[in-house]
Amino acid sequence: MSRLHEALETRRFAEGTVKLPQSSFQDPHIQNIINIIVKDGKFKLPELVASRRDKLVKYLAQKTVSTGGKITHQLIFDWIGKQETRMNKVAAKAPILYHTMKNNVVAGELFHIFQMTELPPQGAKFSTVMFYELVRAVQADQESFFPMENFLDRRRLRQVNFVFMGVGKKTRYDSVPTACATPGGDFAFNVPFCQKLMDWAYLVGEKPKGLKYVSNGGDIPDEYAPIEFLIMHEFMHYVNGDFYYDKIIRGSNGQKADQMTINWVGDFRSNYLLCKSGYQPLPIGLYNDMINYDRQTRYKEMYDLIEQQMKLAKGAAKSGGKGGKKPKPPPYVPKVGDVVENNETWEVGEIVAINADGTVEVKPVDPATLSNSPSPAQPAPPMVNNPAVNGPGRVKP
Ligand SMILES: [Zn+2]
Predict the structure, then answer these.
(1) Residues with CB in 5 Å of ion ligand 1
(2) CA 124, 128, 130, 131 torsion: positive or negative?
(3) Rounded distance from Cα 28 to ligand 1 centre (Å)
(4) What residue spans define the domains of the chain?
(5) pLDDT tens-place string over residues 104-132
(6) Which helix or strand (DSSP H or E) is residue 360 part of?
(7) What's the chain's average pLDDT?
């Protein structure tokens, strides 16, 4: 039987022509999911540290005390409204960086609430057997993924190593709440996160186009469509050289490339290409119609643009609020034992050592255990550019 390959789109598309994620409270599937959360859902702390969403964890934990865990309509509207305001403020200062993402705050934030909602089982249950079947289908579709070549040293990766977090066995990637790729060829997936993506796809009623899916006569349940997107996204970090650029690019200050900026380049590039190629995007993630290989021709151009926009955005954060400048607090000096928050990933950890260069080593802390601690987590500048020293090492979510 001849196989129909699902190649990635190679034509150049004009701005405004690729369907990128957009959402509003008026969307029927958004209303449907809000109603399901309010009717059947209960706030539940995620099994793994919900680092990135730590602020939301605290918000929900606090607000649902009086409702016995119930998440109300009001609570959802308040949280999303607050995040929209925040996004609009920052988008006004860095319009290119948030150009596209400001259109998807509703679905993005609702998905994060959904992640912390315990609900009766929805569609298909995540299974590693089905996952591997999906991987084989993806690799058959995309020749560039097989064999996978490491851009860094031009060596072919003989074996792709998959790791699953959140299934009872400890892994070195347990602090990653989503999925990640490493230069050594590990691809790690947080199973509870994958399950939530599948539940969401089920509730939205997504119908993927691939022939591998049940809807089109295949044997993979339709709910796996977001997992396909995620697998391809992680493979793309590897085959498109994000680990390579990580090493060679210099920022405008002449310093080593900023990890977060490199991550944004990779995510914008891959997510745009996947959407352009007809894949259904995830409800969350970094999408940009103005930063991708249809707008720029070189990686470094994207890097420089994001770097410049991030500076503008940071300026927005500094001058934010009414009444002008607030007095600057004295710079924070890290001490062993302090609980700190990575201001990029919102990961919370306890400082276990301070390195000679001023960076710190941290041990992840479950935010759930912090609610009763006497002092709130400190914002910790030293962890920036040095995330998870003790954790998974160089990874790209
Ligand atoms: Zn990524």
Answers:
(1) 267
(2) positive
(3) 29
(4) 15-120+290-326, 128-248, 339-383
(5) 999 999 999 999 999 988 899 999 999 99
(6) strand 360-364
(7) 84
